[in-house]
Structures are given as structure tokens and as C-alpha cells.
Design brief:
5-stranded antiparallel beta sheet, 2 domains, Rossmann fold, alpha/beta, OB fold (Dihydrolipoamide Acetyltransferase, E2P)
Length: about 250
């Protein structure tokens, strides 16, 4: 397996090179490049399976590099020191990213995911969602990439009816009736989806406020558009009522 690290910081490249060698026990060849132009040349020369790509470099951005390619035929892990706004965009696209300074445990998880997806051809769709997310976090037609053990699904945010905590996983219920189990916590999706009028009404339930059909205030439960009944905790009831009044 060929691995390419593209970053203009030599210390970052060297440290990441060492950590990747430590984590991956099988035989791999690791190449390095220090910017956009050298990175493009290295991609053409080495045909990498996995690319670690810095977001901001001296001669351009990682997005400049990607836009110069006819197709993206490798798995991608971004390296970024960006702010929370940009990190949200990565999370919507389900593209792996590492924050500087790079944490070994986060790197190990990212490598495990991309190795499972080496033959997955969804990276172009993920990059499209990433570009959209970087432009606007409040687009009504915004999509989110939901990744389970076998596939990546590209779902409009407003097609999500509600999300349910399943331990360290989150179960998504969609308008189509489909359910998708994703290996992230409900808290992570609460933070991500709150700007789109999602509200956590219970420790185990995050709902799309647009999808409420009826609120049974005496019995403290919601009837959602798909027919599901969602309990509302006592401590969340007043907050929910205030939000509903503003809709």
C-alpha cells in the first residue's frame, strides 16, 4: 500500500511518517511532499492509496490540489489546524481529518476507517458535500454523509426525522423509512445538527423540529411525521415549548 503525506511543515511530516509506520504493521511505502505542486507530482508518480493532506500550505490549499485532479482515486485524510466552523464541514462530509498536533489514537482510528474504505468510490461525493458545507452551514438542502460499517449514505438534513442514542452509536430514522446506525454519539450529532432546528428532547432522542406532528403536553411525548412517538423529558419540556412557539 502506498501512502503519501502532503504538508509544508517538515516536523509534521516526520512525526506523521513515524506514527503511521508504528501503527501499520503490514508492509507499506510512505512518500512525502511539501506543498501543492510537489503533492500533485507525487500523486501522479506514486499512485497513492491513502493521502494525508494539509489544508493550508505555503503554495496553496489542499482544496487547490484536489481541484487540479481529474479524479480522486485515493482515500483522503485531511490535516488541519482550522477553527470549529471548518471542522463541522469535515464532519458533515464524513471525510476523516486530524487536528494538529496529531493525536496517535485519532490517527489510528482514521487509518482503520480509510483502510476499510480503500475500494469505496464515494470520495467524490464526500468532497462535494465538504465544499458545500464550507460555503454555507445553513443551506436548507444541505446534505450530511452518514457512514455505517458497510456504506456511506448521502442524506438531506431535512430528510432526517429523529436520531436515537444506541450507546456509543446513533440510529438515524429517515423519511423514507430507512434506518442508519452510525458509530458516533448522539451528543456529536446534537452539536452538528442544532443549527438546523434539531432539538434534544430526551437523553436518548434528538428530533427534527420540522417533523413534529403533535405534542401531547400532558403525557410528555411527541408524535412525529413518520408515526413514531418520542418521549420528552421534564427538564426539556419548557425549552421545547419556547422553541415551538417561535417556529
Amino acid at each position: 500500500m502506498n501512502i503519501l503525506i502532503i504538508d509544508d511543515d517538515k516536523l509534521v511530516r516526520s512525526g506523521l511518517h513515524f506514527l503511521v509506520q508504528e501503527i501499520l504493521t503490514e508492509s507499506n511505502t510512505i512518500f512525502e511532499a511539501d506543498g501543492v505542486q510537489n503533492g500533485l507530482q507525487a500523486i501522479q508518480l506514486h499512485a497513492p492509496d491513502i493521502v494525508f493532506l494539509d489544508v493550508e500550505m505555503q503554495d496553496g490549499t489542499g482544496f487547490d490540489l484536489l481541484s487540479s485532479l481529474k479524479e480522486v482515486s485515493f482515500q483522503l485524510i485531511f490535516i488541519t489546524a482550522h477553527n470549529h466552523y471548518a471542522i463541522r464541514a469535515f464532519e458533515f462530509s464524513a471525510i476523516d481529518f486530524l487536528l494538529k498536533p496529531i493525536d496517535e489514537e485519532h490517527l489510528q482510528r482514521a487509518l482503520q476507517r480509510v483502510k476499510r474504505n480503500l475500494h469505496n468510490q464515494q470520495i467524490e461525493n464526500q468532497l462535494s458535500i465538504l465544499a458545500e458545507s464550507l460555503q454555507s452551514l445553513h443551506n436548507h438542502d444541505k446534505k450530511i454523509a452518514l457512514r455505517d460499517q458497510e456504506s456511506i449514505y448521502f442524506v438531506k438534513v431535512q430528510e432526517i426525522i429523529h436520531c436515537q442514542a444506541q450507546g456509543a452509536y446513533t440510529l438515524f430514522y429517515l423519511e423514507s423509512g430507512k434506518q442508519i446506525l452510525v458509530s458516533k454519539t448522539l451528543k456529536e450529532y446534537e452539536d452538528l445538527l442544532s443549527p438546523f432546528l434539531f432539538f434534544r428532547v430526551h437523553h436518548a432522542h434528538l428530533i427534527n423540529l420540522h417533523k413534529i406532528k403533535q405534542f401531547h403536553k400532558l403525557d410528555n411525548y411527541l408524535l412525529m411525521e413518520a408515526g413514531s412517538e418520542i418521549p420528552v423529558s421534564i427538564r426539556k419540556k419548557d425549552g421545547l415549548l419556547k422553541i415551538i412557539e417561535k417556529l
